[in-house]
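G., the chain you wanted modeled:
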Amino acid sequence: MSEEKSAKGKGESEELIALILVRGMINVKQGIKDTLKMLRLHRKNCCVVIKKTPANMGMVQKVKDYITWGEIDEATLKEMIDRRGKKNPKDPKKTKPFFRLNPPKKGFGSKGIKKTFAEKGALGYRGDKINDLIKRML
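Predicted structure as tokens:
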């Protein structure tokens, strides 16, 4: 039984979330800029994939008014790596830890980039609908 618990514990910590920077960096407070830099989100329409840990989720909550995020599935992650993955010049076996994406076809949402996803905007938690957004941005 202890093996089953440890396998479950590993599976929960291995859950991946995708973060996409939706808004620009002009007139943003320094603390939020630093957090976005730690998350490797430097430009609009950049995407990073991180593990869902309490520390990472704390950073996500701090910058929730500038990003959208959700759980990414394996097929979308593989497609994103194939189409947008760039080799790291320092270590050719690894890819860069971020993806530069196009603006989404048909836009982020009907209310724009200043409203939450629940209000038919672009910001905040999307759940598994992040996969649809990423596919429109590839």
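The chain has one domain: 13-137.

Shout if anything looks off.
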